[in-house]
Design a protein that fits this description.
Radius of gyration of chain A: 26 Å
Oligomer: homodimer
Strand order of the largest sheet of chain A: 2-1-3-4-5-12
Shape of chain A: elongated
Largest interface: A-B, 60 and 60 residues
CATH superfamily of the largest domain in chain A: Response regulator
Number of helices of chain A: 15
Number of strands of chain A: 13
Strand content of chain A: 5-15%
Order of helices and strands of chain A: HHHHEHHEHEHEEHEEHHEHEHEEHEEH
Distance between the termini of chain A: 92 Å
Helix content of chain A: 40-55%
Number of domains of chain A: 3
Chain lengths: 357, 357
Amino acid sequence: MSTRPTLAAVAARAGVSPSTASLAFAGSPKVAPATRERVFAAAAELGYAGPDPLAASLRRGRSGVVGAFIGERLLYAFRDPVALQLLDGISEVLSAHDVGLLLLAGDVGRPSTSQIARIPLDAAIFATCGLEDDPAVEQLRARGVPIVAVEGPELEGVPMIDIDDRGGTRDLARHLHDLGHRRVEVVTMPLRLDGTRGPVTPKRRALAHYRDVRHRMEGVEDVFGPVPMYETPSNAVHEGAAAGRVLLDVPAERRPTAIIAQSDVLAAGVLQAAAELGIRVPEDLSVVGFDGADLHWLAPTQLTTVVQPSAEKGRAAARAAMELVEGGTPESIVLPVSLRIGTTSGPSPSSDRTARR
Amino acid sequence: MSTRPTLAAVAARAGVSPSTASLAFAGSPKVAPATRERVFAAAAELGYAGPDPLAASLRRGRSGVVGAFIGERLLYAFRDPVALQLLDGISEVLSAHDVGLLLLAGDVGRPSTSQIARIPLDAAIFATCGLEDDPAVEQLRARGVPIVAVEGPELEGVPMIDIDDRGGTRDLARHLHDLGHRRVEVVTMPLRLDGTRGPVTPKRRALAHYRDVRHRMEGVEDVFGPVPMYETPSNAVHEGAAAGRVLLDVPAERRPTAIIAQSDVLAAGVLQAAAELGIRVPEDLSVVGFDGADLHWLAPTQLTTVVQPSAEKGRAAARAAMELVEGGTPESIVLPVSLRIGTTSGPSPSSDRTARR
DNA sequence: GCGGGGCATCGAATCGATTCGATCCGCGTC
DNA sequence: GACGCGGATCGAATCGATTCGATGCCCCGC
């Protein structure tokens, strides 16, 4: 009573050897139906719920758990609809394999390294965080835990699931350029998670941690050349709004005619700031985002943005992880993105002016 | 090379017994500093990253993983800010214990039971789902995995973390009653996850799955008596909006003067519907919610709502889980909630009319 | 009647640590 | 000089399954 029955006990009760009992539970076709029944009956009598996952894991060398590394704490990371979609995609594939999804949130000051040491992981997916100088990477490698990176930096032997951040932003920028915009500014996601807010200096830029952020900066520059950029400390609506206020609350002639936000969430914040300041979108100002997140509450406004396959990114990452666990060597992949023109971008007001003159 | 070094190998190299090496890695004070150093040096030479968590888990009988059961798939569950806060609270406490948080999302048609059989869990927290007739409960019990329920039904030997849903809603209802509202309708969260949408019939109500939903219905009735209720199939903004359109798009004299939404998210949807229909809030209509979620994008509107300690709920649940793992028997607790009056509730327009006449 | 093939079952090694009680050694004390 | 004590280290059992190669057995065919 005090202690749970073991497979051996069940086997004894059923009058078979532990090996046969094990086979029976594994559903092996090698065991005779009658025997299988006897084993199950014995298990039922003893209240045995099936093989202990821990013991099975040790023997198999697999824990059935894949870890997803989230840079920030859950609460902030999940303000980001893309992160959610990503995780949802991961979860979908993993659960189809009966594998569990473990969340490793980088809590402030607490490196997740001590968790890694204690928790059995079959593979790790770096989901929404740069992994350049993350000590966890070293530790996982030493442990032999395979790693998959989502929009991380290239790492020896680490398959990467990427999207065409640069190309997508380039399309977006070109769209604005075609509309006559010349005074364009960028609101960036955090270059790294240290709470910095403000104009991006070259020095700051050199510290950029995240691959996607860098590529989205470059995509703009491919079209417009150097452009003022403003960094937010967190990819959240209110930070977008704060940035928007700074960039927009200036004399109209110095105001940008278009703002390229590096995410839809930030773009939504900029829209908010514009509304507060009585700036009409898209008449006075074009605002574009990135992600194609469904910001239901923005309706009926439709953001001009670059749609990325967030969920598919997650599924691909999970598939790669499973393949690594099986001993395979999955390829890095780059998923395509597509421009979606909404109601927040229009002809540049200054180009109108020039035309009229 | 092909195979990872074991503790035994490290011990051999350091010239000590496996037991001593184990003690050294565990940081036991019983091992002499010099010896410890020797062990660590040997480990470094061999590229040994520390004891294998799987083996350690088996021996200890603990996996260091706690599962959180999410009723829906991740994507939908996390539209709900309360679920997020809850998970964040859980994660906070667990990671302080170096314990991992595993997400078990009930994907459509795929009961998580097969995952449970394969994944080693130390405890399970039923986070955002009813567990009345969940087969997972039976399975976990058979396995001896302790369970904590958050706003679940009372279950023998399962500590429950609850909030005062009924009392909170009662305060909310009284607030509206005091403002003169008499024609009140309720927008409910799903009574169970089967996609049902529409007026709540007594028959339907008998099927109600979720404790919090039931209590929030009762709280309203404590003040207003029987009240028309309208069920949404999912706790999401657009569903709130859909419900709002149905309830509000009727001749003004049949329109409710106040709508009590069972969550802030639904309330936000109702606000959206009201705006679409040109109904002013709070002049023509009061809208109240529940949760105290920070819907940043609602600003500057401030929802009248009941603030619940979502994150604390998560922390409490995680603490209870840890206590269960340690063999303790944590108590069920009920956390307090508080009314927060915002800008979306005001005097009933019909009471104005009556007064004027 | 005997050899062989196939199917069901069994034995035993193994996965990699943890942990308790035992042992060993050096030193202080009477 | 013997005894006792305490700190450091070691031996060996144990956690609970999985799995491969071996064994036993039955039946068929020659």
